[in-house]
Amino acid sequence: MKKIAKTTLAVFCVILMLSALILDTKTMTDEIVSAVETCLYTIIPALFGFMVVSSYLIKSGLYRIIFKPLYFILRRVIRLSEEEFGIFLLSLFGGYPVGAKLIADNKITRDILPFCYCPSPGFVIFIVGIGLFSSPQVGIAVYLSNVLACVLLAIVLSFKNKKVTGGQSRPPLLLNVITPSVLSASSALFPVCAVVTAFGLIKGTLRFIGVENAFVFAVLEISGVANLTPNPALLPLIAALFSTGGLCIITQIPALINKKIPLKGFLIWRIPAAILSALICKLFMPLLDFTAYVAASTTESAVAVTQANSPIASVSLLMMAMILVKTAEDKSKQNTCD
């Protein structure tokens, strides 16, 4: 019965989307264009650099040197191996997919994904701080709320690990891993941007049936938070929403991780993570000055500010990524044949 219900719902959604594509082509096209612009103007510039640097630090082994003092202090509290601890820290400033990508690339089988999932500081400050409230301080508060929620989850979920090994130390590989790091980041960009564009179809379909709720669109795709009403009372809810990442980012995770990492636990732990983020953000609110923000009608939104920039750099980056990935694939096939 449940399978029939799921099939019926899927068929209904497909028919509805096809109807929207045929009967309201302009709305659907506009949403796809908007999604592509989000990738070019926001996601790629904010994400690619963090992903390359994070991958390089792990692949080169430099993370052992950089994070050694902090690991020595926190290893009794956050009971992770040195490699897991490095991935955890990098996920806190790298952006949502970075943690999942590093876990998959380094074949981590222990379930650390629930607390290796956090927005990048630049993304939150840009969308919430500058775009919504015209105050970077507000964006920092939301980001720190998400970080502290991840830290608390890490303490709780890693506590059952009674024995922690530091891993084998090796000399850093400074040059040999530059290209693999770029390739790793490039290969992660394609599913991320593809899913964001696909969610443009979903938003267009919702508009086709009359849904025009900014919060619903923000739940679907997190950058839509920039279009919300700049109401300080919404800030804990915004922090909770950034802790989940929205449905678009959640659906990107399976494309980046290996099948050995269970997604069920990741999804379940998003609920307490969101609650913790909201509570922590509420504690930060008395420290924030909201007098700087003005109504969205009198300021440029984050989307407008971003779209004022040229997409040439992002397009060039995508072309370069495609060339690098294709070259690596051809080389791999040639080595296989040889």
Helix content: over 70%
| Average residue-wise pLDDT | 80
General form: globular
The parts where pLDDT drops under 50 for at least 5 residues are 294-314
Protein topology:
Layout: H1 2-23, H2 25-60, H3 62-66, H4 68-74, H5 82-94, H6 96-105, H7 121-132, H8 136-158, H9 178-208, H10 214-220, H11 235-244, H12 246-256, H13 263-284, H14 302-307, H15 312-337
Helix pairs in contact: 1-2, 1-9, 2-5, 2-9, 5-6, 6-12, 7-8, 8-11, 8-13, 9-12, 9-15, 11-12, 11-13
A few lines on this structure:
With 338 residues, this protein is an all-alpha fold. The chain has helices at residues 2-23, 25-60, 62-66, 68-74, 82-94, 96-105, 121-132, 136-158, 178-208, 214-220, 235-244, 246-256, 263-284, 302-307, 312-337.
